[in-house]
Design brief:
With 449 residues, the chain is of the alpha/beta class. The protein contains 15 helices and 13 strands.
Length: 449
């Protein structure tokens, strides 16, 4: 483990934690909140593995002060949360909901009172259902609605929020939500989902412009990235890995940083691009957020009639989390160095905006949640970041996923990513051993977190 009193990361390195509104807030239809696509999706039979939903989740909406105190005890330097668009603007059109706006005022003010810097995400997947009824992210008109929403959030909160993320993981929204249908809204458009990717990127750019006009001083992103490992040395597998790298990584990084799409994908996106779009997408970023979990092993599809020309294989030879995800800390170092090599001067300082693991550890007879595997995961990944920093990559912070065990999308409540255990029957919070370890690691860090 990182020894207390002798951290490996530079002074002032920011230690944070991240959450998302739908996964923790609950209060799904209270105080004027409108329905989101996830409210709709989770109430459809067969969509969530355990048949659950986020109606209550962690009840963070009603337990805000308790959760803020947990963050303060942890010693967080920063907290990344998302604003629920349908909570503050129930239909994505017109009037805003005072109760929803006030909730985020209390959250932001509570963070600052505890010396925790807020990082606000505007869209962490919970699109107002009324906008989905108009076509969701397939409809270019939603970009205008998002820009207006971003402007209003900036006007309300930019004086107090340190960092802004317009859209969380646009690749996951595009592919799991619109290409394969595993996430809300559950469409299976395959490569026809590229229109969604373009509109999400355009919304990112429009939101960045609106936020800065409202006084925001730090706007970035939170893109999900993974090194792509070919399943073999065969040319077909190598080619498939290269193509999927363009789809998963380059499709969103290149427009944001270079103002263009990867060459292999240009023809798929070209029909949706209007004059000025690429300049709008390529807004200056104050930080580049990386959401990292594991590498992916890619092979050429063996089925000539498959919808996609590539398929994901198991990464073998490494331990796995309870989610079945491989634990490969060095691939985080690999990706950080790859990112710098690809984008060089175009790449702003990096913040790890998410990184974590699911281990389903429960309290023992003494109420202790012994999640040593999570401690090992966090320690090894922070060490990987430290190696990348020593190699010259400018990484400014690490926000672990997640503060609380929570509703894990299509996996429901079957996975636990939190530093804090949540009993979903009683909603009691129990800090895990990893919580204590993270607190000690933060305390040992020299300089302001």
């Amino acid at each position: 483990m990182i020894p207390v009193g002798h951290p490996l990361l530079p002074p002032g390195f920011r230690f944070g934690a991240s959450t998302a509104a739908y996964q923790i807030e609950g209060a799904a239809a209270e105080d004027g909140k409108g329905p989101s696509i996830w409210d709709t999706f989770t109430h459809q039979p067969g969509r969530v593995i355990d048949g659950s939903n986020g109606d209550v989740a962690c009840d963070h909406y009603h337990r805000l002060d308790e959760d803020l105190d947990l963050m303060q005890r942890l010693g967080l330097g920063g907290y990344r949360f998302s604003i629920s668009w349908p909570r503050v603007q129930p239909t994505g059109h017109g009037a805003y909901n005072p109760a929803g706006l006030d909730f985020y005022d209390r959250l932001i003010d509570g963070l600052l009172e505890r010396d925790i810097q807020p990082m606000a995400t505007l869209f962490h997947w919970d699109l107002p259902q009324a906008l989905d009824d108009e076509g969701g992210w397939i409809n270019r008109g939603v970009v205008d609605r998002f820009a207006e929403y971003a402007a209003t959030m900036g006007e309300r909160y930019a004086d107090r929020v340190e960092h802004w993320v317009p859209i969380n993981e646009p690749n996951v929204v595009t592919f799991l939500g619109y290409a394969t249908g595993e996430h809300a809204p559950g469409l299976r458009l395959m490569f026809d989902s590229m229109v969604v990717a373009h509109h999400l990127l355009l919304a990112h750019g429009r939101a960045a412009i609106a936020l800065r006009a409202a006084g925001a001083t730090s706007v970035g992103c939170a893109n999900n990235h993974a090194p792509m490992w070919p399943a073999s040395d065969d040319d077909a597998d190598v080619g498939a890995a290269k193509l999927f790298d363009a789809v998963w990584n380059g499709m969103f990084a290149e427009p944001m940083l270079f103002g263009r799409y990867p060459r292999d994908l240009e023809l798929l996106v070209e029909p949706f691009i209007e004059p000025g779009d690429m300049a709008t997408i390529r807004q200056p970023l104050d930080f580049y957020g990386v959401n990292y979990y594991n590498p992916m092993r890619i092979a050429a599809s063996e089925d000539e009639e498959a919808d996609m020309p590539f398929e994901q294989r198991d990464v073998v030879g490494y331990p796995v989390t309870d989610f079945g995800w491989p634990v490969v800390p060095d691939s985080l170092r690999e990706w950080l160095i790859t990112l710098r090599a690809r984008y060089r001067a175009a790449l702003p300082p990096i913040i790890i905006t998410e990184s974590g693991c699911s281990y389903v550890s429960e309290p023992d007879a003494d109420g202790v949640v012994d999640d040593q595997a999570r401690i090992d995961y966090l320690d090894s990944h922070l060490r990987a970041v430290a190696v990348a920093v020593r190699a010259g990559v400018d990484v400014r912070g690490y926000y672990t996923w997640s503060l609380l065990d929570n509703f894990e999308w299509a996996e429901g409540y079957t996975q636990r990513f939190g530093l804090v255990h949540v009993d979903y029957e009683t909603l009691e919070r129990t800090p895990k051993r990893s919580y204590d370890w993270y607190a000690e690691t933060i305390k040992a860090q020299p300089g302001d977190n």
